[in-house]
Design a protein that fits this description.
single chain, DNA repair, DNA recombination, metal-binding, zinc ion binding, two-stranded antiparallel ribbon, Helicase, Ruva Protein, domain 3, five-stranded mixed β-sheet, alpha/beta, Dna Topoisomerase Vi A Subunit, Chain: A, domain 2, about 200 residues, TOPRIM_RecR, 8 helices
Length: about 200
């Protein structure tokens, strides 16, 4: 079956997104095609703004529109606690729980030598600098409970203990192999309340 080239291109591009198969991409493309021009322009502009106006916080590497993110700028946050996460989507998931009031540090991934992700490619050096320069009393490791997340947690625990910093891990209320991004707020909230010292 022949599909008009612009529609096929839209389907191909949409199917590159995570969790979007060809059928879902086709439904989305046809929905966009049927939608009014103003709605489509609004979508295009929001995607353009996403790429042009969003950057990473120069302190914690969370998503920001300025040099510092809203969390790092806030004087209401507990600056003695830093929660270490894999990527910015984890910050969003944790913030939705309203159970955590400290700062964050986004590693930008987890250790995975087979995929070429080594210590040098993560924001570990920057975390150690923050620990040295700030009044940090506790580091909470909130990495996904899979092999790579556990390996990263073990590595961070070792180097942070050498710096005499209390290291805790969120409780295993999250399923093994699950992602913070897909967990519900209550599960993540319980995991924070039940965190354990490593």
């Amino acid at each position: 079956m022949l599909i008009a080239e612009p529609l096929q291109k839209a389907i191909d591009e949409l199917s590159k997104l995570p969790s979007i198969g060809k059928k879902t991409a086709q439904r989305l493309a046809i929905h966009i095609l049927k939608d009014d021009k103003e709605s489509v322009e609004s979508l295009i502009n929001s995607l353009r703004d996403l790429k042009e106006k969003i950057k990473l916080c120069n302190e914690c590497f969370n998503i920001a529109t300025e040099d510092k993110c809203d969390v790092c700028k806030s004087n209401k946050r507990d600056r003695s606690i830093i929660c270490v996460v894999e990527d910015p989507s984890d910050v969003i998931s944790i913030e939705k729980t309203n159970e955590y009031n400290g700062l964050y540090h986004v590693l930008g991934g987890v250790l995975n030598p087979l995929a070429g992700v080594t210590v040098e490619k993560l924001k570990i050096k920057e975390l150690l600098e923050r620990v040295k320069n700030e009044e940090v009393k506790e580091i909470i490791l909130a990495l996904n409970p899979d092999a790579e997340g556990d390996a990263t947690s073990l590595y961070l625990t070792k180097i942070l203990k050498e710096a005499h910093i209390k290291v805790t891990r969120i409780a295993r209320g999250l399923p093994i192999g699950g992602d913070l991004e897909f967990a519900d707020s209550a599960t993540i909230g319980r995991a924070f309340i039940g965190r354990i010292e490593l």
